[in-house]
Amino acid sequence: MLIIGHQAAQDVLRDQEQRILTLVEDTYRLHDEGDTALPHSVFLRFPDDARNRVIGLPGYVGGADPVAGMKWIASFPGNVAAGKERASATVVLNSTADGRPEALLEASAISAKRTAASAAVAAGLLVTDAEPRGMSLVGCGPINREVLRFTAARLPSLREVVVFDLDRERAAGFADAAREMLPGVSFAVAERIEDAMGAHPLVALATTAATPHLDLSACRPGATVLHVSLRDLTVEAILGAQNVVDDADHVCRENTSLHLAEQATGGRDFIAASVGGLLRGAPGFRRDPAAIAVFSPFGLGVLDLALARWVRDEADRRGLGVRVEDFLP
């Protein structure tokens, strides 16, 4: 058993945005082709505690180098106020030959980077300007930090970013850190969420909202909204947009905005396409330059597994991690 801790995973992932973007695109294509197995995520909740949860995401990715395993990720939003990360995650990888566990990885960085890379892939597919100059970020936590990093790698024309958070001090600190990460980009802190939503035609939402609270009236015509946190937008906002998802069966669950829209309408006709289908050139979708496009990714466990497999292979090649020879009987 190879155990890969946080620092070793970070060392492998550092400055690998283009490699990760390609890996995410390839995995989305395999998923759209049916070469994955992806059961529904399992949500562990606690009595009298609606806010905290631990989620299990099992899966299998086929292709030339198959991988099977599971991500186990906890989300405790109250951690932020205590100075801890909201989410913590591990991934276990199993042999596809005999099922035995082969690697255990600390996966908070893997989870954040695959989430951000999926949003950046969608941004590249949906923006109406071939070289967008600006982006707005609503929610100034680690996920939007990575969304910014990967979107800048996917759309290097970005030069202006507006950020908003309910905690203005947090937003200001986020902007300061982002200036160091992207020295060629200017940053501004919006006073109101509406100001951020309307500042640029590319918007990323990554908040801890549990129920819809936001419409799209402040957005520019033709805007692209990366709805990473899944529960920000009202049903009316979803029904008025061009909706792209990672997987309709997965995203229409657990009271996401799209799940509520499905319940309100009795169907999923409001979903126009999947990101895997767009990557494979599936017919039937035309990006309306006057309409707002919303990308809502549930977060597919196959992305975690594909990225964790690569991290494992690279860590093993570099001699990183700890090998426990007597882990199994």
Describe the structure.
The protein has helices spanning 6-13, 17-33, 108-126, 142-154, 168-181, 193-199, 235-239, 248-251, 257-265, 275-279, 301-318; strands spanning 2-4, 36-37, 42-46, 49-61, 67-75, 87-94, 101-106, 134-138, 160-164, 186-189, 202-205, 224-227, 242-245, 271-274, 293-296, 322-323. The protein is of the alpha/beta class and 329 residues long. The protein has two domains: 2-110 and 302-323, ornithine cyclodeaminase, domain 1, CATH 3.30.1780.10; 119-299, NAD(P)-binding Rossmann-like Domain (Rossmann fold, 3-Layer(aba) Sandwich). Strands 1, 2, 3, 4, 5, 6, 7 and 16 form an eight-stranded mixed sheet that branches. β4 (49-61) and β5 (67-75) form a beta hairpin. The N and C termini lie close together (11 Å).
